[in-house]
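ingest -> validate -> predict -> emit
validate: passed (alphabet ok, no gaps, 238 aa)
predict: started
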Amino acid sequence: MRISRKRITHQKGEKREKSVRGVDDGKHVKKGPGRSGSERDEIENAMIEGELVDKGFVLPGEFIGTNEEFISGEQTFNSGGKIYAAVTGNVKVNKSKRTIMIKPEVNSLNYIERGDTVIGQVGNIKNMVALVEIVHINGRGEREIVNLEPAAIHISNIKNTYVKEISEELCPFDIVKARVLDVTNMRLTIADKELGVMKAFCSRCRQPLKKTAAGLYCGSCGNKESRKISTDYGTGII
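emit:
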């Protein structure tokens, strides 16, 4: 049986039409070559960056969320279940990890980082914790410090040995050199030998205490006291 040329052309046309429909429907699409390692890295980085949602510009101390909503991230701090900005910058939220953080915008601000050596003055002493107002960060010049809450020295971070009473090692108004352990809860340590009280005041007459072989002595009233002192006590060296 003979098939006309016209019929053959028509059959071929039908096949071509089906092939085009297959592409339009997303079927039988030929896959291209696999992506290179560098291309995959670029895509993964883009996905990670895409998870960070910009929530706007904030100043230190501004409320940015709660502990129920987010996990406190870099350059933030917690207080009463709420999360606040510790520095000036843009709020970034990692949606997949539920982490909220601040990307600093103003480099001139002096924000505290983990591992920093700081100088502060002891305020209240509550139970097993001494609260410290940080006034200087070593190596950062005289710029204003971004720190809205007192730092804390727990009794376990005063010495590398057992401490029975915190009042025997620290007292209100003492000037201390400490190292930052944690910026989220602003915890400090003075356990290392170069850390500790740099200048102490008599608990009776508030005069400076002098360092002697037997401990600290007040030249005004004769009172003797003890502290966890720094090796730089009384030298004025920060």
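DSSP finds two helices and 18 strands in the chain.
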